[in-house]
Every structure is written in structure tokens, then in C-alpha cells.
Amino acid sequence: MNFFKLNKNDLFVISQLAHKDKSRENSSNFLGQIWQILDPFINTFVLVMVFGVMFKNKRFVNYPVYVATGIMFYNLFSTGTKNCLNALSGNKNFLIKAQLDKTIYVKEKVFVALINFGYSFLIYLGVMIAYRVPFRITMLLVIPDVLLLISLVYGFGKILSIVNALFADITYFHEIFLLFIFYGSALFFDPSRVAPVLQFLLSLNPIYLSIAIARISIIDGIVPPYTLWIKLLLYSATFYWIGNIVFKKGSENIVAKL
Could you state, in order of their start, the residue ranges of all structural domains in the chain? Predict the structure, then answer.
């Protein structure tokens, strides 16, 4: 997958674009950057305070860790795809002046989301220690889990970057879409306690699949069922493939359409 095949020149361009985005979004405000990293844990605190008693059961001994895991992976998807909306439309001047591979602009947006996820994960490890969740070898399975999710985000992000360059109003629909994903990823409730129909619908949500794999690997300390891996792999490969096709066709003469 070419997202992970970056040469030194690509990495330099991505780092420069990332620095530009950070400066523009946060006005070089250090607190603003820290806020993005702490956002999953602020949301976790709110959800635990609101739903901690309502959904309390024997399985949720580590409910804060359960919620934090879900929020962190959801944020990786939501931040990555939201960033990709403006990957092309927000870099019109670069597209005109610099003869770069257009995929660089999408890669940079996903890269920023991944970096924020990495910093958040360091804080997450502290949360695990606070709630005495043991560190097990199965935690390493989070690595392929994140790689599959990133591949999905990259493919989906390519589609969004093209669609947003043609129809700017897609931003509003994306917000509604993220709302469905938020409540359809079992971030703060036990999916086994909902109706079978809803459980089936959850199983169709690739973000829920990624979250479930992470929770089983980290909290339960066991290898997630192969069915979860296969479903997530199929989703990631499909979106990656469709994203490449849409981006290749849609990015032709994209400057004239912006």
C-alpha cells in the first residue's frame, strides 16, 4: 500500500505541510495542539460521568479504559477523514505552483491524525496503569489494527478530498455521517446488551470492528476472533481500492475545478 511507501522527499514535504496546517489551525498556540491530543480523554471523562452508572456491569470493571479505547480509535477516523476534506481545496496555491504528486496532500492529513493518535496513546498507557490494566503481549495486535484503520481512512479520505473539491457542502453531510458512526460504534455501551438486529448493524461498521479488536487485545488480553480481522481487512482493502480509482480520475484537471 503506497501510503506507507514514503521516500525522504515525501516525508520532508509532508512535514512542511503538517507544520503549515498546525500553524494555521492553532495560530502556533501550544495549548491548541495539546487540546487535540487530550480531546479523547475529555470526551471519555464526560461519557464515563454520564453513562458510568447506567451501563455499569461486571464486564465494565475498567469502564473508563473501555470508553477511552473506543473514543481514541473513533477520533483517529473522524479527525483523519475531516482533515482530508480540505486536502485539495485547502492547498490550491500548492497545486498551482508545485508539481507534486497530489496524493501527498491526502497523506499529510492522515499523517497529522496518526501523530495525534500516537501522542494520545501515550496518555492512554497512563490511564491503563491508573486502572491497573496489565500490559500483555496481545497489545502488539493494536499495531496491525491501526494500520488497517489508517488504510481505510486514507482510501475514504481520497474520496472525500475529491468530492469536497466539487461539492463544498459535503462537509455538512460528513458531520452527520460522523454522528451516526459515533453512536454506531459502541463507544460507551456493551454491544451484547442491545437487540440482535443492532448487533448485526454494529458488525457492519468498520470503525466498531477496529475498536472491538483493540478492546479485546488490550483489555481482555486475548487474540481477537479471526472474523473481525477478515471483515476489517475487507473494508480497508475495498475503501483503499475505491479511493485510488476515484482519486485518480477525479484529480485530473482538479485545479480548474477548485
Answer: 2-257
